């Protein structure tokens, strides 16, 4: 025998729409980040994740650090998942040691610069992660990608 529905209210919405970055925008963003890196004279890995943190695209410049592949992907994942710059993590954590130790133990969470959320009209549609140069250069390349697709 089935248990009765205790709330007695029908579910009005089972699924909700979720915007994600388009394949075309991913391609443009990746190319823009690489073009900015070439202009700066650095070699990078760049990844774009959709609003669910799933990898949507990746590009590696020849000669970019192999170890930075996963870092770029994880920066995109972190920025998409939380909706703010990876560089801002330490500001938000402050002096809370519990949070510092807890978050640092989380796989895939990156707490240094180079990961930015992708927003269009205020809506989070994904994240971009750049790794391979300095933290500042990584972020410059990520911002060039946002500018190229008209994201905030």
UniProtKB/TrEMBL annotation:
Gene3D superfamilies: Haem-degrading domain. InterPro entries: GlcG_carb_metab_protein, PduO/GlcC-like, PduO/GlcC-like_sf. Pfam families: HbpS-like (PF03928). This is PduO protein. It comes from Zoogloea ramigera. The lineage of its organism: Bacteria, Pseudomonadati, Pseudomonadota, Betaproteobacteria, Rhodocyclales.
